[in-house]
Each structure stands twice: as structure tokens, then as C-alpha cells.
Design brief:
Blueprint (H helix, E strand, L loop, with lengths): L5 H38 L7 H12 L18 H11 L5 H25 L4 H13 L1 H4 L6 H16 L3 H14 L3 H16 L4 H22 L6 H10 L6 H13 L3 H18 L5 H17 L12 H20 L5 H28 L4 H15 L6 E3 L3 H7 L3 E3 L6 H4 L8 H12 L3 E6 L3 H5 L1 H6 E9 L3 E8 L4
Parallel strand pairs: 1-2, 1-3
Antiparallel strand pairs: 3-5, 4-5
Length: 492
């Protein structure tokens, strides 16, 4: 056997040298790729009802019916018409809109995590950004919104705030304009960037400002012309829902969420790290100031709006929370370093702390993936049955119209007031969904009605309803969710 020549040895050493130099840059890329694949496998088929309203807008746009929910009715019932247009464009390549939107969410989460790492790297505080990115990638409150526009919205906000921190104000204006098109609360992030720029420069950067305002004027004028208002009717509906006896306002729901976290003692560690992290941001890591300011404005804004709580309203709070926790870990490790512990011991303690912080969020995310909402399959089954067994123009009344409406492809009447604004007016402090359903049925007399049991058993037992509707199908999910489909047989 020939002995290796000196030239071959030199080439081998040089190749390993190049790989070792690139290894620090390759590790985050490999971790991001693995995270993307893992989340796609876990959440590729995940879903819940609300995003399907937006999917139906996108589906109708693809079918040539316009940006509408019910064909012929120009009502803005989605909070994010821009995301519906985006899905319609991507749907030209892949028509399975629910799966497509899940992929967009996963890619957005991974990109958002990468932005946190990049954001912290420039001021030399990479460790805090890496821990924040890891936590963001597995935090269940954020991953629960997979399929909706929330993750995509957040990555645009983070991109805009990060660009502003780097003084790339043109890029920041473009990203935040897109964010505001996706969800109106992106305006608060643009306001933060404007105020920070004004404080630093003593004057407004007019080119980025005009770019932002110009894009806003074009988009929201188009919405006004198309729907008569740039604001979705869902805003008024969710404010009405909060006034119901069974409703819960946003800020009250937040306190309830904190109580849920406090019931698991390991989450106390997250709270302690966040408090330490807040002190670190004030004293040292001030590059996160824009993110924390936007998060505070977001919280105040939703509290002032007085909307009913929904879990996806709290997801935009996650990036700031993970940043505070990450910076808290850095602060604690820095404090331990002053004790002159051996470097291996210090590294081991830091790794153990990060593992403990990741454990509960990761377990929660796995639980979401392994125990999906049973309504997804039941509502889809009912929607597909309605599409197959009812006339094309048959109207359908239901409380949750997202999944059922998307698969039924029938004109829907919504008992929660998200599609028909006049129904939302029936939701007051003395009212409930039984009252709004009664009003909607007696006002429009839909050809089919879908009722949850036992929630609507009282309505189904009334004399007028029994004389007007006959049950034609029952469905169950997980042994607990019973649904009955009724057909209109007579009008009193």
C-alpha cells in the first residue's frame, strides 16, 4: 500500500481547516433546517377553525369569485385580507391551502428565530439571541397559531424592527408596511420606529416615512373601495363578544394565562429569568428596546380595544418574553462567572439551565401536535357532507363557520357575527350564542342549520325550531363533540 504523500496530507489538513472554520456558521443553519423539518412533521396537518375563514377568501379569489367569503357579498370578515391574497398567489402552485399556510407558518417561525439570533449578534450579545430563538421555536402559545397569519406577521415585524436597529430605515419601512397590511397592529411597530428615529436624529427620515405611508394609502384605499371600510367587521363582533356574560376581555384573559403558567412550577423559572432579563435590557442589552416598546404598545392597544380573548391574540407577546428569558440566562451565567467557577462547571450549569427552560415549552408543543383538536375532523366531515349532499345555493347556519364553510362551499350564516355584522348586534351582556343563533335563524331561515350538542339543546327543543327543522345527520368527535345537522322543512 502506498504511503500518503506529503501533498495529500497537506490537502487533507487544509480541507479540515476550512470545514472547522465554517463550522460555527454551519451549526445554526443545520439547526434551523432540522427545526423546520421537525415542525413540518409535527404541525403539517394541524388546524383550528378561525384561519379557515381566510382560506375561503383565498379559495374564492383563486376560483375567480373575487376576494369574498360568500360569493356576491362584499363584507370584510377576515382580519388579514393581504394574507388571503398571498395564499391565493401561492395556491396557484399548491392548491391545498391549509397545508400551504401551515408551511408558511413554520418557515416564518424558523426565520423569526434566526432574526433574533442575528439581532443579538451585532452588538456582541449572541448568546441571549440564540436562547431566545430556541425558545421561540418551541413555544406552544406561538405554535398553536400555525396555519393563521400570526407567525408571518411576527416575522415581518421582527424584520422591520431589526432593520431599524441597524439603521436600515428603507428596509424597515418596507417590512413594517407589509406587516401592517397583514394585520393593522403593525402600525404600532412603525410608530415605535418613527419615534426612536425622531429621538436619535432630531428629525424624521422622510423617504422611509413616505414609502410606508404610500404603501398604506394604496392598500387601505383598495380595501375601502372594495368593502366600504378598511376595517374588518370581525373587530366589532369580537368587541360585542367581550360584552357578553360569558365573554372575557383581553387583559383578563392574559391574567388567566399567567395563572395557568404559574400552576406548573417549572414555569416559575421562566418568570425569574424574565425579571433578570428585564434588568439586563435596561442596563446593558438596549438593542431590544424597540421590540419591548412595540410589545407594550400592542398589549395596551388590545386592552383599549376591549376585544374578547382568543389565544392567538397573545402569540405576539412571545418574542419579547423569549428575549427577556434569554437575556436573563446570560445575566445569571455572567453572575456565576464572578464566583470563579471552573469553565466546564460554568458551561454545564448554563446548559442545564437552558434544558430546563426548554423542557416544558417543548412538551407543550408536542402535546399540541399529538392531541389535535377533534373539531378539525368533525367539522371537515360535516362540510364535505354538505358539499356532496346539498344543492349548490343552499344556505347553512352555524356557530363556527371556518372549517365547515371552507369544505362545504355553501353560503354561510354565522351565529357569532363574524360574517354578518347584524348578527353581532345580538351579542350583548344579557345575550348568548343561543340568542344570536335564534335571531339569525328566524331572520334568514337558512336551508340547513348545524348545532353543537348539548350547547344548543335548548334551542333545538323549542317548538318553533322543531316545527321548522328536521335532523338529517349527526357527527361526533372524540366521544365528546356532538354535532347535528338540520334541514329546513317549513317556515312558521
Amino acid at each position: 500500500m502506498r504511503a500518503p504523500t506529503p501533498q495529500r496530507n497537506a490537502a487533507t489538513v487544509w480541507s479540515w481547516h476550512r470545514v472547522s472554520k465554517r463550522l460555527p456558521a454551519l451549526v445554526p443553519v443545520a439547526l434551523g433546517a432540522l427545526t423546520t423539518v421537525g415542525l413540518l412533521l409535527l404541525l403539517g396537518r394541524y388546524g383550528y377553525d378561525d384561519p379557515y375563514i381566510t382560506y375561503r377568501y383565498a379559495d374564492n379569489l383563486l376560483a375567480g369569485n373575487g376576494l369574498v367569503y360568500n360569493v356576491g357579498q362584499h363584507t370584510l370578515s377576515t382580519t388579514t385580507p393581504f394574507y388571503a391574497v398571498l395564499l391565493a398567489g401561492l395556491g396557484l402552485v399548491w392548491r391545498d391551502l391549509p397545508r400551504l399556510s401551515n408551511c408558511v407558518s413554520v418557515l416564518s417561525v424558523v426565520t423569526a428565530a434566526a432574526l433574533l439570533v442575528a439581532w443579538a449578534r451585532d452588538p456582541g450579545q449572541r448568546a441571549g439571541g440564540m436562547i431566545a430563538g430556541l425558545l421561540l421555536s418551541v413555544w406552544p402559545l406561538l405554535l398553536q397559531t400555525t396555519g393563521a397569519e400570526i407567525c408571518f406577521f411576527l416575522v415581518l415585524v421582527l424584520a422591520g424592527l431589526c432593520a431599524a436597529e441597524r439603521s436600515r430605515l428603507g428596509l424597515a419601512a418596507g417590512a413594517l408596511a407589509l406587516a401592517t397590511m397583514v394585520r393593522p397592529e403593525g402600525l404600532l411597530a412603525a410608530l415605535v420606529v418613527g419615534l426612536v428615529s425622531l429621538a436619535r436624529r432630531r428629525s424624521l427620515p422622510w423617504r422611509p416615512v413616505l414609502l410606508y405611508l404610500g404603501l398604506m394609502a394604496i392598500w387601505y384605499s383598495a380595501l375601502w373601495l372594495e368593502f366600504g371600510s378598511p376595517l374588518p367587521v370581525t373587530l366589532a363582533a369580537k368587541q360585542q363578544q367581550a360584552r357578553m356574560g360569558t365573554g372575557t376581555r383581553f387583559e383578563t384573559g392574559f391574567l388567566q394565562l399567567l395563572r395557568q403558567y404559574s400552576q406548573q412550577p417549572l414555569y416559575w423559572l421562566h418568570g425569574a429569568m424574565a425579571l433578570v432579563g428585564l434588568e439586563q435590557v435596561v442596563v446593558r442589552a438596549r438593542h431590544w428596546g424597540g421590540l419591548l416598546a412595540w410589545t407594550a404598545l400592542y398589549f395596551v392597544g388590545y386592552s383599549v380595544l376591549g376585544v374578547n380573548r382568543y389565544f392567538w391574540y397573545y402569540a405576539p407577546l412571545v418574542p419579547a418574553a423569549t428575549v427577556l428569558i434569554g437575556e436573563g440566562v446570560v445575566g445569571v451565567v455572567r453572575g456565576l462567572a464572578h464566583l470563579r467557577l471552573p469553565r466546564p462547571a460554568l458551561a454545564g450549569l448554563a446548559a442545564l439551565l437552558v434544558v430546563c427552560l426548554l423542557a416544558l415549552p417543548l412538551a407543550g408543543s408536542l402535546s399540541i401536535a399529538w392531541r389535535p383538536d377533534s373539531r378539525l375532523d368533525v367539522y371537515r366531515e360535516i362540510g364535505e357532507w354538505l358539499q356532496a349532499e346539498t344543492p349548490a345555493g343552499a344556505t347553512v347556519g352555524a356557530l363556527e363557520v371556518g372549517i365547515i364553510g371552507y369544505y362545504a362551499r355553501r353560503p354561510m350564516i354565522d351565529f357569532a357575527g363574524l360574517i354578518q355584522p347584524q348578527v353581532a348586534a345580538q351579542l350583548d351582556a344579557a345575550g348568548n350564542y343561543g340568542r344570536s343563533a335564534t335571531w339569525a335563524i328566524q331572520h334568514d331561515w337558512p336551508d340547513y342549520v348545524v348545532l353543537q350538542q348539548p350547547a344548543f339543546s335548548g334551542l333545538a327543543a323549542t317548538g318553533w325550531f322543531r316545527a321548522s327543522y328536521a335532523p338529517v345527520r349527526q357527527s361526533a368527535g372524540g366521544g365528546t363533540l356532538w354535532m347535528t345537522v338540520y334541514r329546513h322543512i317549513a317556515t312558521p
